[in-house]
Amino acid sequence: GLIRSVQKFELCFPKLLNASCKKQMRTHFEFILSYVTLSSITVITTTLNLLVIISIAHFKQLQTPTNLLLLSLAVSDFFVGLLMFFQIILIDGCWFLGDLMCTLYYVLDYTITSASVGSMVLISIDRYMAICDPLHYSTKVTEKRVQVCVCLCWICSVIFQILVLSDNLKQPGRYNSCSGECVVVNNYIAGLVDLVVSFIGPVTVIIVLYMKVFVVAVSQARAMRSHIAAVTLQGSVKVTAKKSEMKAARTLGVVVVVFLICFSPYYCYCVALTDNLLNPVSAAFVICLYYFNSCLNPLIYAFFYPWFRKCLKLVVTLQILQPGSSERNIL
Length: 331
Known about the structure:
This protein is mainly α. The chain has a single domain, classed as Rhodopsin 7-helix transmembrane proteins (Rhopdopsin 7-helix transmembrane proteins), CATH 1.20.1070.10. It has ten helices and two strands. It has a two-stranded antiparallel ribbon. The longest helix has 42 residues, at 188-229. It is globular, with a radius of gyration of 24 Å. Residues 48-301 form the G-protein coupled receptors family 1 profile domain. This is Trace amine-associated receptor 13c-like.
């Protein structure tokens, strides 16, 4: 049979009576499960991304333009991990840190999301240049230019989100319906601009660039096939070409698909939020998925690289503290 759960409520601020928000009462099991899940994701996300940051920042050999973009992504993902601490505070639905902290939390959250998406766009531009214009790659994509792009990405994210949330910053807590609530509200136009600038635009750029990269990778595989076909038997070559085409498709597919799977529901949730279309359970799932992407990024980008495993060993065994360790041969 069905077990009926009766919702009981307590107040966030019992002394304020009617002005206080209601605390959502959960079973002991639900509370522990939420707490353990969020805490685990926080620890794993911050630890993995911190390892990426230490590795790239410490070893001079790793400070290439592409890795500087991975460093930017790792920094934004590291902050996402730290921000999950506030989600843990909000487990029972009450915010105790005041209205200003609530607004700043959202500004920080949105800024980091924008910077993360921006870093993904820069990574896709970098891969596009490397595969589609390999002859001019080293002259066009320099360390200095990448540093400037990364700084601009972060500065623009901060300015843009302050503008989007300006109403909430002028008067923190103006949209709260009761004490202990933490909400920010954008006007329709600001929300629409944010959706286009922070999600639809970047995602379109990423998909278009990766499609072009994929087309070039496939044509390179075909060129290799016809080259080998001149020297070898036709039969065995078809298999090789198929494999290389599939490999190109898979690698690029993983990168784009994981990002879209984790981010798309979050932006749909932000749109649905204004119409209260989602129940708390699906909202929690969407937010966890969005945060989980920051945990997956170092796995997708870094664990596929043998140098990361080598760095991991050197960092964990504290060998990076030895003099001259930054000059070590990692690659």
